[in-house]
Every structure is written in C-alpha cells, then in structure tokens.
Amino acid sequence: MKINQMKCSRSLLMFLVAMGSLTGLSAQVGIMKMDTVSSKDTLHHISRGWVLYSDFSAIGDGKIDDLGAIVATHAFANRHGLTVKADKGAVYYIGGKNITAEVQTNTDFGDASFIIDDTDVENRNRAVFSINSTQKPLPLHNISLLRKEQGKIDVSLPVSCIVTVTDANIKRYIRYGPNQNSGSSQTDIFIVDKEGNVDKNTPIIWDFDQITEINYLPIDETVLTISGGLFTTVANRAESKYTYYSRGMNIRRSNVVIDGLEHHVTGEGETGAPYGGFININNCANVIVRNTILTGHKTYQTIGSADVPVSMGSYDVSVNRALNVTFENCSQTNDIHDRTYWGIIGSNYCKNLLYDNCTFSRFDAHMGVANATIRNSTLGHQGINAIGSGVFILENSTIHSRNLINLRSDYGSTWEGEFIIRDCIFVPTGLGSGNVTLIGGANSGQHDFGYTCYMPERITIENLRIKDANHPEKYIGAAIFADFNGQMKDDNYVEKFPYIITKEIILRKIKTDSGKPVRISDNVYMFRNVQTPTE
Fold this sequence. Notes:
Elements (H helix, E strand, L loop, with lengths): L9 H10 L4 H10 L5 H10 L1 E3 L8 E5 L1 H14 L2 E3 L5 E4 L6 E3 L3 E11 L11 E4 L5 E2 L21 E12 L11 E9 L20 E6 L5 E11 L14 E4 L3 E4 L2 E5 L9 E15 L2 E2 L6 E3 L5 E3 L3 E14 L2 E2 L12 E4 L1 E7 L2 E17 L2 E18 L2 E4 L1 E5 L7 E14 L8 E4 L12 E2 L3 E9 L12 E3 L17 E2 L3 E9 L6 E3 L14
Parallel strand pairs: 1-3, 2-4, 3-6, 4-6, 5-7, 6-12, 7-13, 12-14, 12-15, 13-16, 14-16, 16-20, 17-21, 20-22, 20-23, 23-24, 24-25, 25-26, 25-27, 25-28, 26-28, 27-29, 28-31, 29-32, 30-33, 31-34, 32-35
Antiparallel strand pairs: 8-11, 9-10, 9-11, 18-19
Helix pairs in contact: 2-4
C-alpha cells in the first residue's frame, strides 16, 4: 500500500497500547507515525497476510529516520499475526531514538538495507529490534533447593519450559587478572517438560542449597523466522571505556531462525566504546543463525579494574543464558587473522553451543558453557577460548591460533568433563617463538574462583595435523599442555585451591610437519601422572 493511500486510525494505535503491543516511547512514536487507517485498509492488510514498512509511512530513502514507522509496522503485525516485509530495494535510516521494534511475527527483510547510526543515541542499550516471546516468565513456588544433575523437579507446567534459578548468596566466576572482579551470583538455566523432567542435554550444573529466585518461561512451540536484510552500523565515537553499545537485534524468544542476514560496521575512528553484540541471544532456547555474515569490531584499549591497560572485548554476537544455539554456514566480513579486530562472539551461562561450517575469528565461553561443538569450521587469531563442563567436541576444523584450545586463565582454566578432538588441522601462530601448545591455560592454585577447577578428565586427540614446518632452530616439538603453573616444580609447592589435572590423554594418528613428536609439557612434574597411551 502506497504512503499516500495510508489511512490508519489513532484509535487502533491506542488499542495496541492497551493490548501491550506498544509500550512507552515505542507507543508514542507509533501513534505519531500512524494517521488514520480505514477499516477497509485494515481488512486488506489482514486478508493479504503481510504488511510493508511503507504501509506505515516508512520512506526508505536512507536519509529520513524510519524507526518510528518500523516500530508501528511490527506493532500492527503483532496484533493481527501478520508477516512483516521490507520494501524491495529500500534503504531505511535508523537514528538514535530510544525506541525498539518489538518483533513477534515472521519478518522478511529481503534485499532492503538498514543504516543504524550510533553516533548520537539517546540510549546505547536500547535494541533496534527485539524478537520477543508472547509468553511471560512466572515464578516457581515450593522449590527450595536443587541438586547438580538432578533429573526431575517437583512441578506441573502447562508446556515445556525454560527454568532460570539464582542463589545470590554464592558467588561463582570470581575473575582473576586485569579485569578482576568479585564474581557473579550462582545461576543456572535448563529445560523441563510438563512433568518437571529435566532435559538431559541441559543438565543442572550446580547444587542450590538456597534459591533466591526461580522462574519458568514457556517455550514458544512455533518457529519464528527472520530472513534477509543488509544492516550497517555507523560506529559510535564515544570515549574508549566499558560503556557497551547494544543497538542491534535482541532475541528473547525460543525457536527462532535467523537466515541470510548481513551486518557491516563503518566509521570506526581513534576512539570508540565496545559493542555487546549486534545479535544478542538471551534467556531462550533453540536458536539457529544460518547463512549469516557478521563483522568484527575494532579493538580499543582502556584501564581495567586492576588499574592496568586492557583491550576491551567487543562483539558482533553475544549469547547469554541460552540453550541449544547453532551457528551454521556463517562468516565475517573482515580477515579472521587481523588482530586489530576483536573476536566475533562472546557467551556466558550457555549450554549446547554449536559452530557448523563457520569461518570466524573466535569461539569464546566466558562464564561457562555446558557442552559445545565446533565442526567443519575455520577459526582465526583468537581461536577457541572456553571454560565449562560436559563434552567439548572439535572436529574437521582448522584452527589458526596460539593454542588449539585455550582454557581461560582468568576463570581458572577449568573444564569439568572431556575433550574430543578429531580430524583437525592446527596452524600455530606462535611458532616463531618456538613455543607450540595444544591445550593452553594457567592456574596457580592460589586464587579462589568460586568453584573447584578441573582440567578435562580425558582428552582424545585423533587424526590431528600440526603445521609446524617453518620452526626456529630451538624448537623441540609441540607440547600437549602449556606450563599451567611455572612454580609447581616439585612436591614442595602447596596449592590453596587444588587444580584437578587430566587423568588420561588418548593420542591416535598425530602428524607434525616438522617430524618432531608431541611431548607432554615443559612442566613435566605437573603432568607426571597423566596417562598417555598412543597409537
């Protein structure tokens, strides 16, 4: 429907506000953008089954701010269960208004472009799009404790749900190093069915002797699809400090597919605040991001909490408190080996993360992931950084980094579970130093991270090629483990917080281009009891 044919009633907008489809400033802008819509035109939209942004006064010339019209379009679509379509070839300019388009129906951005201007914003934390569930979280009653790996909770629920639980009396992930902190409240997220059976793929990972908050959120049963769209963020030019910008697309609904989206970044200058993710996935399950192209952000420096200079993490994707999240056939616009750009993704409190056929600069799990898989992928200069539990599978992939897998030392280099590595190629970027390690990390045993720290109990490495041909003369071969504690050279060293060492490494078909065999570690004493059967 053409703009000059648009006749939308103010009473309809007020009705949407009353129904909760528009709230706050989003409601005000929606009302302002919509004139009068006749009943005839409303019926036309409904019978057609979809609406265009131009139906609600979007111009699409790349100059006039269209965010208000976009907000109004989605509000109307949400109310009537209609698909939203971008106008073919349109260029939508999105300025710094403190409003969000709430998306609850399928959306096809097609070949349209969206320019998100972050140079002058009213609220740097306000997403442009938020893909929301129609369900609301509700408190769970009569549950006073939970146990690690508990198989069932005593509840009866309407459908399968996500359960989130917190004990604010216990602190975990007490970070060490330049960005040190006092930790975060113990938290967990898992799926239960109607009878309260815990999904075995999202196990409870902590004991909860006290519960300060516990809620459930029904899982949306239908799949919502967001497709297409070329998005360009005009980067902020703020002071370089930890004032994160998150003006992108939030996913707050389960069973969502993002397909064919492309995100670019332009205008990065001498200073800039970091980004918390153009795609931000939070408090949901079963999300697939496929055929999507993303962009790494320029790395800026600031002073960390330990009063020393630090590089600030800046992400195009953030995944927090999310379950069963897959990235499939995804890549990034900039060189995955360019160290001037930060790694593409960061995550916390997740379970079952998967990269499949992705080319990214990094995989990262900050405050823990339970089960992760990387397959058919290529990772760049920041490689694989993780702590967590369960099974980490790395297969049929090429890793260009200092370590094949790095266990993050700022969180204790902990993985309570197993590593399975097979059919991979490792291209060590630290070869020039003569120091090549497969499993990196550090733990002095002197810092309380809020939990017992483990190395993987078993590590299986099968059919691995290490490209270490162009090595310096002093090179003596790749080590399986880094020197995790350079002070632990004999039994006189006492750990205040013992670090539980790997029990067994199984090696099959390890090939080095240098011809030098792999060895256990520069710290032979620390790993003296590790069993290393080879084939």
